[in-house]
Fold this sequence. Notes:
Elements: H1 5-11, E1 26-30, H2 39-48, E2 53-58, H3 61-73, E3 77-81, H4 85-95, H5 97-110, E4 116-125, H6 134-151, E5 154-160, H7 163-173, E6 179-181, H8 188-197, E7 200-203, H9 213-221, E8 227-229, H10 251-262, H11 266-281
Parallel strand pairs: 1-2, 2-3, 3-4, 4-5, 5-6, 6-7, 7-8
Helix pairs in contact: 3-5, 4-5, 4-6, 5-6, 8-9, 10-11
Amino acid sequence: MPKSAKAKAEENVPPPLPEPLAVPVADSHTHLDMQTPGVEEAVAKATAVGVPRLVQIGCDVERARWSVKTAAEHDAIWAGVALHPNEAARIEAEHGPAALDAALDEIGAIAGHPEVRAIGETGLDYYRTGPEGTAAQQRSFRRHIRLAKERDVALVIHDRDAHADVLRILREEGAPRRTVFHCYSGDAAMSEVCAEAGYFMSFAGNVTFASAQPLRDALAAAPPELLLVETDAPFLTPAPFRGRPNASYLIPVTLRAMAVVKGMGEDELAGHIAENTRRVFA
């Protein structure tokens, strides 16, 4: 059934501010460069609901530069920089392997800034890039793993339809001390593998979707000492606001849903997440 004009208009209306968290946490993964309104308003609204720290992720060279600049201008923001796996495949397909190497070198240079607390999001995406891009993605992923270890910062992984290869490459390269599966997408069995390896698992608003029971099963199996929360804004707005603009101030909605799945009080879970965020990024 076609959407009514009213329904279409509501899609562009930001959700209301939720009740503030009593125990502050960070949004461990957001894309402020893809959102409106501006950074100042995003930080102010997040802080007002108990989310005083945002990890801004830049997914190509220009966005990585923007992320570092923005983090330098705002005490509330830390930066993560990388070539998104689909960006790595695109560069090599359009410009050749030398161009990909040059872009990876540039990310390495940008990563030297003190505002950079993570290398990511990197990893593998077999959903949007077909087999022709696999080699470029895997080569890029390996370079990012090495860079995170060289800089001794967290590695933030994008893993879409590529679980086995992501875990294999981490084993082959040796994972950094702090490794995060952003927007965790595996099942409960994979969460047990991640937990055994000491990998952090960051859950986003899609854990609230009606169709996401496998994600909730994975969350239930994951130890609180390895959990993070994120928005991946402007994407993955949690229910009941799915389809409307996502932003860091909606972290409390996702965290409260996570607490229900874990059978924990929201303050207890928030305390774990706050400490985990400090261990990963600070």
